[in-house]
Automatic annotation (TrEMBL):
Bifunctional enzyme that catalyzes the epimerization of the S- and R-forms of NAD(P)HX and the dehydration of the S-form of NAD(P)HX at the expense of ADP, which is converted to AMP. This allows the repair of both epimers of NAD(P)HX, a damaged form of NAD(P)H that is a result of enzymatic or heat-dependent hydration. Catalyzes the dehydration of the S-form of NAD(P)HX at the expense of ADP, which is converted to AMP. Together with NAD(P)HX epimerase, which catalyzes the epimerization of the S- and R-forms, the enzyme allows the repair of both epimers of NAD(P)HX, a damaged form of NAD(P)H that is a result of enzymatic or heat-dependent hydration. Coiled coil: none annotated. The keyword Acyltransferase does not apply. It holds the Pfam family YjeF_N. K(+) binds at N51, D114, S150. It comes from the Bacteria. It comes from Rubrobacter marinus. Belongs to the NnrD/CARKD family. This is Bifunctional NAD(P)H-hydrate repair enzyme. Binds 1 potassium ion per subunit. Its cofactor is K(+); Mg(2+). (6S)-NADPHX binds at residues 50-54, 118-124, 147, 247, 368, 434.
């Protein structure tokens, strides 16, 4: 955003013009959501930078719409465009209130506009601003955040102290990373983006992008006229144990619904017949197991033999954690250059992200915060607090593609990070991760590169859950992972 903004000014567009366009657009979005505001009381809390400057213009616009507007400005002296716009307010019947009147204004407000801190903020909120933020969060009135909820790091989504909880965040030019990546994203409420007139010459390629349907156009591999089952992608799934067959079945069915031509499964010897019965179209075989019914390190030879018929491998779900599992993962990683997705137990069986760096074949890992916290040795809490940097760091150290699960599923590879735009709380249920592994595995088997396979898989998986909600009208709590199979084809259809 900073580069785009500077680029626009370097082309000769004055900063004040950008501020005016941003704030007029934001005001329109505010009126669309909360209007009409004639006769209603609006309190604008404006900080000392350009975010506060936006607040001054919004105050003027909402005043023009008939609102009774009060403005509290944190600074005595302003400079630049913010000063110009504050001076305009002095000529209007907008009330400029001091800190002593802030709490009373807040109590009487019908709407609060948070223009304290925007993209210029990082770290922890200093001084009296933290008190203001706490008061805003305790107030009854709905809150609109300007550009970023104050206290949220707009570039990372990290939140180190108090941060505004908004009902609506109006962003200039593009959704800020901090408004969509958790925990910042959980503070933003609904996010609306307003055009501020940045010309294409000043556009920059963002390292962090939003995975929506448009960004996936042309990415999903198609089956050609002459396809046979192998050319349509053949996936080898190595999963499950004598006491856990469900995960294996869900990976398999997810892969089939994502267009994989043929699915092979290797699971524990004593579980193979049950998986075979549940996966009609797949070829299932059993591998040597240990006394606990987990595939043992001795299974490697059988698996590598099977892999000769596959174009990609999914390794992990419910395969067990321990010495046998570690030998299994190590043997497969070293034994083939096929694209491999590691999930669940396979991730837990890795000694660290560096263990993947030596692979020459493409690798995807799909941890949740707990699994990634174990892999990095930092713990789930640290990963949840710093999702973007945790995913980036893992991608760098493992030289792999990392999909970090969550309400804001992140896909990181090299310098790039994609934030998924689909999904619902319905997905917070057992087995959905297994389905996701199958979907991404299928895309890998069909020739998609890891980054595209992971972000397409995340999008389609989330979209299938949304479609289930839309079509059935049932409460989110009642979805089970197998419900996704019926809606995955429709989700993919939206991308084709
Ligand atoms: N043309 C443009 O530029 C456009 C910009 N736009 C708008 O400008 C916003 C960016 O403006 P910005 O760069 O002025 O930064 P901003 O978010 O107001 O923060 C600076 C203030 O925060 C303060 N502060 C910082 N850290 C702090 C801390 N830890 N704890 C407490 N305070 C802290 C810092 O205080 P200081 O360090 O100076 O004491 C200073 O007062 C952007 O989000 C968008 O809304 C749009 O209108 C489009 C056109
Ligand atoms: K703000």
């Amino acid at each position: 955003m900073t580069r785009a903004d500077r680029g626009a000014q370097a082309l000769g567009i004055p900063g004040g013009v950008l501020m005016e366009r941003a704030s007029v657009g934001m005001s329109r979005a505010i009126l669309d959501s909360f209007g009409p505001l004639a006769g209603r009381r609006v309190l604008v809390a404006a900080g000392g930078g350009n975010n506060g400057g936006d607040g001054f213009v919004i105050a003027r616009e909402l005043y023009r719409a008939g609102a009774d507007v009060a403005v509290f400005a944190t600074k005595d002296e302003y400079g630049g465009d913010a000063a110009v716009n504050l001076d305009v307010l002095r000529n209007l019947a907008v009330r400029l209130v001091g800190r002593d009147a802030f709490s009373e204004e807040l109590a009487g407000a019908d709407l609060v506009v948070d223009a304290l801190l925007g993209t210029g903020f990082e770290g922890e909120v200093r001084g009296d601003l933290s008190g203001l933020i706490r008061e805003i969060n305790d107030a009854a009135a709905p809150v609109v955040a300007v550009d970023v909820p104050s206290g949220v790091n707009g570039s990372t989504g990290e939140v180190e102290g108090p941060a505004v909880r908004a009902d609506l965040t109006v962003c200039a030019h593009a959704a800020k990373v901090g408004c969509v990546v958790s925990p910042g994203g959980d503070h933003a409420g609904r996010v609306e983006v307003v055009d501020i007139g940045i010309p294409p010459e000043a556009e920059v390629e963002a390292a962090t992008t939003w995975t929506d349907a448009a960004s996936l156009r042309g990415v999903v591999p198609r089956r050609t006229g002459a396809a046979h089952k192998y050319s349509a992608g053949s996936l080898l799934i190595v999963a499950g144990s004598s006491s856990a067959t469900g995960a294996t079945v869900m990976v398999g069915r997810g892969a089939q619904r994502a267009g994989c031509g043929i699915v092979f499964v290797v699971t524990s010897e004593s579980a193979a017949h049950r998986v075979d019965a549940a996966l009609t179209e797949a070829l299932v075989s059993g591998a040597p197991e240990d006394g606990d019914g987990l595939m043992s390190g001795d299974a490697v030879e059988h698996i590598l033999g099977m892999s000769e018929r596959a174009s990609a491998i999914v390794l992990g779900p419910a395969a067990g954690v321990g010495e046998g599992g570690r030998r299994l993962v190590e043997g497969i990683l070293n034994g083939t250059d096929l694209p491999i997705l590691l999930d669940a137990d396979a991730i837990t069986n890795l000694p660290g992200p560096g263990a993947l760096a030596a692979r020459s074949g493409p690798t995807v890992i799909t941890p949740h915060a707990g699994e990634l916290g174990r892999l990095l040795g930092t713990g789930a809490k640290e990963v949840s607090a710093r999702r973007l940097s945790s995913a980036r760091r893992t991608a760098e150290e493992s030289r792999s593609c990392v999909l970090l699960k969550g309400t804001d599923t992140l896909v990181a590879e090299g310098e790039r990070v994609a934030v998924n735009s689909t999904g619902t709380h319905a997905l917070a249920t057992a087995g959905t991760g297994d389905v996701l592994s199958g979907v991404i595995g299928a895309l890998l088997s069909r020739g998609a590169d890891p980054y595209d396979a992971a972000r397409t898989g995340a999008w389609a998986h989330g979209r299938a859950a949304e479609l289930w909600l839309e079509r059935t009208g049932r409460p989110v709590e009642s979805m089970v992972a197998t419900d996704l199979f019926e809606y995955l084809p429709e989700a993919f259809a939206e991308l084709l």
